[in-house]
Amino acid sequence: MRFILRRLGFFVLTLWAALTLNFFIPRFMPGDPVDALIVRTRGRVTRESLEGMLTSFGFKPDTNLLVQYLDYLGHMFTGDWGRSIGQTLGEPVTSLIGGALPWTLGLVGITTVLAFLLGAFIGTVAGWRRGGTLDAILPPIFVVTSALPYFWVGLLLILVFSEWTGGLLPSNFNYDTSIVPGFSPGFVGSVLTHAILPAATLLITTIGGWILTMRNNMITTLAEDYVRMARAKGLNPRRIMYAYAARNAVLPNLAGFAMSLGFVISGAILIEYVFNYPGVGYLLYNSVQNVDYPLMQALFMLFTVAVLVALLIVDIATVWLDPRARAKG
Amino acid sequence: MRPTRTLAAAVVVALAWTATACSETKRKDDDNNPTQSAGPRKKGGEVTIANTAGQTWTCNFNPFNPAVYNTSIGFVYEPLVFVNALKDAAETPMLAKSYQWNADKTQIDFTIREGVKWNDGKPFTAKDVAFTFNLMKEHPPIDLYALWTTAGLQSVTASGDKVTLKFKEAAQPYFYAFANQQPIVPEHVFGAGEAQSKPETWVDKKPVGTGPFEVDPCSPNNIQYTANAEYWQQGKPYIQKVQYPAYLDNAPANLDLASGKAQWGSQFIPGIEQFYLGKSKDNHTWSPPVLNVGIYPNLDPSKKTSSNKKVRQAISYAIDREQVAKIGVGGQVPVANQSGVVIPTFDKYYDAAAVQKAGFDKPDPDRAKELLSELGYSPSKPLKLTILSITGYTDWDASLKVIKQNLKAVGIDLTVQTLAQQTFVGRLYTGDYDFAYYNQQTSGPSPYYELRQMLHSANTAPLGENAPSNFERYKNPQVDALLNEYAAADEGRQAEIVKEVSQFMLDDVPVIPVVCAVDWYQYNTEDIAGWPTEENPYAQPAAYNFPDNGQVLANIYSKSAQ
Questions:
Q1: Distance between CA A255 and CA A260 in Å, rounded?
Q2: What is the rounded average pLDDT of the residues B161-186?
Q3: Residues with Cβ < 8 Å from A60, sequence gap 6 or more?
Q4: A46-72, pLDDT tens digit by residue?
Q5: Which of B18-32, B180-194, B210-224 has the lowest mean pLDDT?
Q6: From B427's CA, which of A170, A179, A261, B476 has a CA 20 to 30 Å away?
Q7: Max alpha carbon distance in chain B (Å)?
Q8: A-B C-beta contacts closer than 8 Å
């Protein structure tokens, strides 16, 4: 219990530190929202008018930084995240994030889970049949693919499956722009076909890590006495593989998996960027481009909270799974 | 992949002037308008716009919000008079059927068109016009063109079908802004609730306007506009539907243009011959030059090198502009010249003899070498210079590579430093640079607008403060006086003034124009006809040019529907 309380205290402290950095770092970045807006309106509109407009949207650079900071902390907790002052001038930040988050959770979230499950399975089989055909082929291939940069794989897939095939698979956006969103078969189908290439990119580049660690854990676990014991008892090999070896081998990976779930929300910025996928990562890119402080703050806050919560869950899970952690606490 | 960009080249301006010669001007309905002589067409068809938005649509159509106004102005909201910057400021009456200035141009009376209806069925009246301007007075942030401050607007009143605008001093230079740029909004919508109390932040989901199209429906990925059946221009618009997908990047937008899926393009297409024009005989492009892109030297005396005229002259003589246009921008833009007058758009104001006399009609590396040797530099002992550019502007990178080679040959070692756009503009505005590659952002119906922005000392600021547009910090009382005289001069004198100002461009070399900035425009004629063309430039052709887009939308038609 004391361990968990200590972890909670640490969580709060980290959150505060992260929120503070989130507030100050964007303000130390070069650039100014007014300049960014002048560029985007092609200098058509006077500086004074743009300043006035940004002020009505809640941008008050002249107030004391400390007051701004305290306001900001309060707003972060109450969910009053303000309005965008960048490219989507005037749009409430909550609705912007609300519009982008489901796409990221859907694409990156599902792909992350899929990569973990598939990777763990392939790793299990490869480790079980060490030196077999599967073990000889897959791990080396995935060592290579997991070292490839996201965006490069993405561009390659676009070239091969979209450009060379004359647009067989869509290479940008989340669904066909000519379809009005709704639960029609056409819309769902469109969403799925648009997700294939980005999801494949993500899968190809992340699955390798899971396979390798799982395979190596399997090999270590297979040398354990309880596995030998199970074999000696004459248990069904399938049962030994899954219930004895894999079940124990996957434990170290679970922590990593929880962490990567925490990172899902920050999206795969480069993937969303290459595929023009309007998720949270793309939103973050745009907000930085346009010096959109309110949007940036809210996004960074979400990312931080997601990772911290994931860490907290890992900590608690460790306590639950590992008696040694409890004993130390 | 990403680093292509929409070359910012736009109409508009805070300061404007219509080419009217006499002091009492009366414009009528039957004003000569080439687009209206085309005869009635049958309705039908659909057009898709491919203009990179860089974001999904927020479905806010508030015409006072500069982040979204180009999806509502021209489509739904209309101005009083349309002024064509490409055709010597030719005027087309829109919501005002005529107007009259008083003798000293401090008061203008608009006669409002009768029989116009808002798309919710309510009649449009002079009161709506007066209301629009007065709303801007109450809420300075929505007075986007500073009419109540800089332009000196004092009062706007409606009586019968007349609307009277009174100014503190002669205000004809602002006609372009208040008659052409400013859309008129309905009092019965903007006169109540949040729209009235906070028009700048109000979200206009279902815009009520007088224009040729209505929004129906809007989703984050696409805006569909449908024709306004009750549009006041009888029989128009011919096109019944407009699709405006939200392209996040140039690449997919350009792909859709090349495949014919989209018919109206408005961004730079690299390698356009192969990528776009070669794909179909129906694919066309015409990109009228409107501004100069060039080198901005910092003229502040504290900058020893860039404020040295000989250095600037040497650079201008050394650059082979034809080569820059051909290699750097793939031959898609015309070359600029040292006089600062964009040709062929503004031929009337161009003084070819003066340019030739100053020796700027062709590259002259020998003269550049001579100037540099006077300063003690040569190809073996080069002068080292640094120029700022913007990361991702690939056409600028390529242009600067050519310039670097040109300069190397005469004894200047140019280092190109690319910065993120925000950092770049921050340093440009505050004068924290030696040389920068850039272009003015707003053009108007004559070279006066760009020259005024570039050279008038009212548009500059001391180092460390934001200069509005005279980034190079040029200060010359003679040029100021000439530019000030322009507003009150007659048409002939105006052309002379531009020529005299451009003589200062030749003499002082305050800015070094290299190539032209254009309105990027591609159009497909497989089904759609009636596009603006070089022969019939009835409006600035890019989809982001408003209210010009309204003219295009009301005039294009589907061939298959005829």
A1: 9
A2: 91
A3: A68
A4: 788 888 888 888 887 777 888 888 888
A5: B18-32
A6: B476
A7: 77
A8: 152
Taking CB atoms and an 8 Å cutoff, what residues of chain A touch B431? none
**pLDDT above 60 (res B14):** no
Q: Do A46 and B144 touch (CB under 8 A)?
A: yes
* Nearest CA among B298, B347, B295, B342 for reference residue B319: B295
| B199 within 8 A of B142, measured Cβ to Cβ | yes
Q: In this model, does residue B441 exceed pLDDT 60?
A: yes
**8 Å CB contact of B440 and A89:** no
* Higher per-residue pLDDT: B15 or B447: B447
| CA nearest to B180, candidates B94, B249, B120 | B94
- Residue B318's pLDDT band (cuts 50, 70, 90): very high
- CB contact, 8 Å: B470 with chain A? no
The distance of A38 to chain B (nearest Cα, Å) reads: 9
Contacts of B145 in chain A (CB under 8 A): 45-46, 49
Which residues are registered as beta bridge partners of B415? B386
**Residue of B60, B66, B426 with shortest CB distance to A91:** B60
Instruction: Tell me the angle at which helices A110-128 and A185-222 cross, rounded to the nearest 10 degrees.
Output: 30
Say how far apart CA A209 and CA A261 lie, in whole Å: 15
Q: What is the mean pLDDT of residues B276-292?
A: 92
CB within 8 Å of chain B, chain A residues 56-85: 56-57, 83
Q: Closest chain B residue to A32 measured between Cα atoms?
A: B422
Section B429-448 average pLDDT: 89
Q: Could you tell me what percent of chain B has a pLDDT over 70? A: 93
Q: A38 in contact with B at a CB cutoff of 8 Å?
A: yes
> What confidence score (pLDDT) does residue B484 get?
86
In whole angstroms, what is the distance from residue B280 CA to residue B260 CA?
8
Which positions in chain B touch A88 (Cβ < 8 Å)? 55, 58, 67
State pTM to two decimals. 0.82
